[in-house]
Amino acid sequence: xxxxxxYQPSLxxxxxxxxxxxxxxxxxxxQFTDSTARTIGVPAEIERVYxxxxxxxxxxxxxxxxxxxxxxxxxxxxxxxxxxxxYANLPExxxxxxxxxxxxxxxxxxxxxxxxxxxxxxxxxxxxxAGRVQAQTGIPYLLFDGTLAxxxxxxxxxxxxxxEEPRAQQLAGYVDRTLxxxxxxxxxxxxxxxxxxxxxxxxxxxxTGLAGSINAEVLDWLGARNVASAAGRGGLATVSLxxxxxxxxxxxxxxDLNFFEKIFADPRWRSIEAxxxxxxxxxxxLPFGWFDFPPSLNRLIGLQWLAxxxxxxxxxxxxxxxxxxxxxxxxxxxxxxxxxxxxxQDAAGKR
Length: 351
Prior knowledge:
351 residues; 2 domains; 14 helices
């Protein structure tokens, strides 16, 4: 005999409500394919974005600042004047990826993001990390190509993801114009016109980007010869002073103020051509570095700065005006005249 089990009305109602909730959640999702060709279910409306690392935070901030829920590190006092106050006050959440990652799954869950966005390398290591974090948290984790060549495409993809298509098209158009201008003017330069450059990181100047490093990608776009390419391909690497002396660069670019302030007085560096000719340049760094740190949209204004440093006759434009335009468009605040003075002081390479 078939037995019919009777349920209390309250349990039946709860079950129906659960089914309705699941159905609604599924209906409000859409499928999105990131730069690694992973197709992931994401909310139809995205309002809260967790940036997995520095490059992603710059990209999301430029595109959709009200959807960025926090920075990978707290905004420092010197950086605060460069942001509208509400964005300078965003909390520190740490980073899920990159060197010295500081966030963990508990921090991520507590932040309650709709999605996690990472911008940078698409290497298997980062794809695996994205999959693990997504499996542990249930939060969609999307990766996008962080190279300069793909910057406009990444902006357009993020615009489609975040519902910010018009803004993304505006920023992507700026990227396309800037990169086309740079590429068009340096493409036919003879080898002897292309400077031999060393990128110095760290207080001793002995960390650098090898050939193919995203951290030194600006040099490739400018047609400069990265002297550290002699040490092979890779990412960031520590080299010896003896190697730098042997490479004898014509130009040194650094992001480290401590190194910049002492290089001209350090007898170990004096025989290098760049030091003898005082062609050592400190990258402006507020609120983000112009050359690197992080390797994201911030490098676009750095490209224009170094293009003028390397090839002043080819790029005879008003850098001050271009800086003002870039900051207004990408950082949501136009710098004051005093801020521009301070920002461009060390870019002249004089001490």
